[in-house]
Queue: 2 jobs
Job 1
Amino acid sequence: MKDLFELLTEKERRTAAVCGAVLAVAACVLIAAAVKTRGAAGRATADLRAAEASYQVLDRDRDAVRKDWQAWTNAQKDLASLKESRFYDGTKGLQDLRLDLQRIFDASGLAATDVTYTYTDLVKGVVQKVTADFRFTANYAVLKRLLDAVERHARFLHVERVDFLSMTKQPGAIDLRVSFAGYYEY
């Protein structure tokens, strides 16, 4: 190769040297750009992996939020169903509650006297509790039928309190005060 350069003139040698230098500089620039690009590609790959991991976390969170949303939607439907089927309608007043109590009294063979009603707001302006207190004298079988009838009742009506006032002179008869609680909404 050295012999080939000796055949060239001085001007051709300078031109070849300049071309070689330009090619060497261009090669260095290309190598530097390749190294820089490789580093940028590595950072971009790391950023992509981090973004994918972040996306997976967000996707799981979104699925969890969707499940929560669906649970709340189902709960609202259940509440609407309960309000429709289990609560008494507040627009009718206490008419339904009184009729249900009378049916329960009739089914258990009971003659209740002095039924008093008290009202309590549970959720202000939405749900109200009505307590019906009454006294009666009966035997344990009648009390058991009464409690069974209330337990089997379809609406939110439950026995809140049973007070044994006294034993009467009649054998097996007891004097009781019972409180039932019913719920209605406006």
Note: The first helix runs from residue 2 to 7.
Job 2
Amino acid sequence: MRWCVALALISTFLSTNALAADKGGKNKKKDGKEDKSAATMDTGNDPARTEKSDQGPYAPKGATGALAEKRKEEEEEEDVIKARPRDKADVFADFILGFGQAPKPGPAGFNGNRPAKSTSLAFVLGGSVDLSRTFSLGLRLPWTYASSALGPTTTSVTAFGAPEILGEYRHYLSDITSLPVLFGLGVPVAQGDPNPSGKAALGDTNQYDTNLIADASSGYRDGELYASKRLPVLLGIGIRHERRALVLSAATKFAFGLRMGGSFDDFHDSTTQGTYYTSNALSLRNVTVLSGTYDIIPKFWGGADLWMTTLMIPEVGYKSPATPPSPFQFVLEPRVGLKLGKIRPSAGVLLPLGGRLADPGMFGVHLRLDVVF
């Protein structure tokens, strides 16, 4: 009986080892080579290989490396798509209807220093063309008509201004932001004689007054076009940001006027508190402009210009015990316009904000027509 029990236990032990050996044999192929599909510590799915680190406070944020560079390229391409396409050429006709009295050189508050109340039309024909992506060349031709009431009679006068050749160089900071550098040279043929002594011919005096009216109705923004007996030289710089719907810009320019004739020194005018007038050899004014437009709908836009003109050295200087007018003039021009294919009409109102233009009630209505190519 004891031997039977012992044999049974031995038989059970041997059969268990045989089964284990058979299962282990499944890890090898018939040719004796090891089956690599079996999981081992060095070839299997080690849990350590699939672990992820916790997102601590110093973990990288956003895209880095090649992914960041790719995202930056995509953003730059998006900016190019949003950029406003530039017109290669532009021909324009600019009209300013002026109303009121234009100040003349002299102390503030004297009616004798203003031409009579007038209605005027300052007309500028011009255009520009891009010779390259960074350089443009342009031309402006000014002409003015003014009708003034002198007592019971009305006097109508026309006067040519100084034609001006303009150049603009653009340095691009990006596809939508540029730094334009402006320079210009005028032809000193603006009609009129600024001599207040009465020695000038009446026609020349009236034409000088007409160019003064054109300058005033334009808000002193482009005085280099209307300076009689002066050679205009223009230098300016700005910054311009253009997207498809929004355009923002800021610019400043210096307009120099070199005297080319009509000089006079220390003319005494006793009617204006002992004022002495002098024709300055060099005149200088600065105009600084902030501008913005926005496409409200694809074919209609609105915007505004705000500028400050500083009459640093006037064409006609004077000495007087009377209070001088401020050399600063601020003007606001709200504007609207249409985009009808290549035809771009626009309109604005020039509103002096105080200064020597607001006192006599001078203002202008600005109409413009551009044809682009």
Note: Residues 2-25 form the longest helix (24 residues).
